[in-house]
Amino acid sequence: MNPTNYYDDPTERPPAWASALREALREEDDERYLDLIRKTRGNAEASAVITNELARIVYGTARGDRTFAELMMMPVIQHGARSLIEDDHKWQPAHLVIEDALRQWMPPTTRLVMFQSVLGYHHIAAWSPVVIRRHLHSSIPGYRVGRVSVIDQPLDLPPDAPRLGFVRFIASSTTGWLELPPPDVARDTALREQCEFAFQASREAQLRFHTPQRAQFALRKGVMAWLTALHDFSPITGWMTSLDPNPDAVRISLRLDVGQDFYLQFVVRAHQISDDGVTAILQHLAGIAPALDRETRGHESFNTRH
Q1: C-beta of residue 265 within 8 angstroms of C-beta of residue 256
Q2: Separation of alpha carbons 296 and 48, rounded Å
Q3: What distances in angstroms separate CA 57 from CA 27, 99, 139, 158, one per listed residue?
Q4: How far is it, in rounded angstroms, from Cα 189 to Cα 170?
Q5: Which residue from 174, 221, 215 is spatially nearest to 54, judged by alpha carbons?
Q6: Does the pLDDT at position 298 exceed 60?
Q7: 66 and 76 in contact (C-beta within 8 Å)?
């Protein structure tokens, strides 16, 4: 098997910085990725391409076939006391229903590779670029994937507050990059209802599924939907951004009104959702609550446009 990326296509004429992206994709080296992100900060085109290419891969077989595979996600908002997110016991009977619903919703002949459980956002926010690539490689028949450690920071949420998770899967095709179905109220509702039905056995919590999208757009949509749900649960009265050790990360602090001031921190990653995705989330927050004293040194490109 020979995994390749979009810019290995000789018919394409990539921008000058694309050679560094090619090397990073080929070497599977987080330092290369993060150095590239650091050097291209503020370049919207570079950020969009890096994010896009990280989550897709082309691989071929000895027979000359080519498969186009992408990481997809379905945002899930949980309401209620009991955590169904990351509950492997609940996932086991539910995942076949969810996989069947996805197969009906996706274009015909799409091959799906599902990952275990509804994974909490705090885990995904800790993924480095190499972790994303290993997810893609795990879908390649016969490809041996090395283990990568992930150190995450669980969110310190108020009791019963909404939680954010994601169903993750690789969708692939042998006819080119997939075109996801256009919005269709009846079809999208049927998908969501089937997925939610799979978890109906629990009366202590409810899951609300959103339609699948490519990873970067699903993450952006999921975070914004979660912020809205959190604000409905307990008003967000202010927010600010601060520096994070990762060069592509923005740490967001929320002040919640839960009887007394409660501060919640989470991270968004530009390599996962692009600079534009980070900006969209900050703009969404600005529409919910006022910004507090900002500590945005090093992240000016994310904040000057909102």
Answers
A1: no
A2: 21
A3: 14, 22, 10, 39
A4: 22
A5: 215
A6: no
A7: no
Instruction: Give 108's contacts (C-beta < 8 A, 6+ positions apart).
Output: none
Distance CA 88, CA 69 (A): 26
The identity of residue 41, as a single letter, is: R
Asked which of 96-100, 157-161, 249-253 is least confident by mean pLDDT, the reply is 157-161
Token digits for 31?
Answer: 């330092």
- Cβ contacts of residue 81 below 8 Å, gap of 6+? 159, 160, 204, 205
Please give the model's pTM, rounded to 2 decimal places. Answer: 0.88
Neighbours of 254 (CB within 10 A): 22
Contact 136, 69 (CB under 8 A): yes
Look at strands 261-269 and 249-257 and give their pairing. antiparallel
CA 267-269-273 angle, to 5 degrees, is: 125
For 68-123, the pLDDT digits (tens) are: 999 999 999 998 766 778 778 888 888 899 999 999 999 998 999 999 889 999 99
3-state secondary structure of 268: strand
Q: Which two tokens stand for residue 76?
A: 């899930």
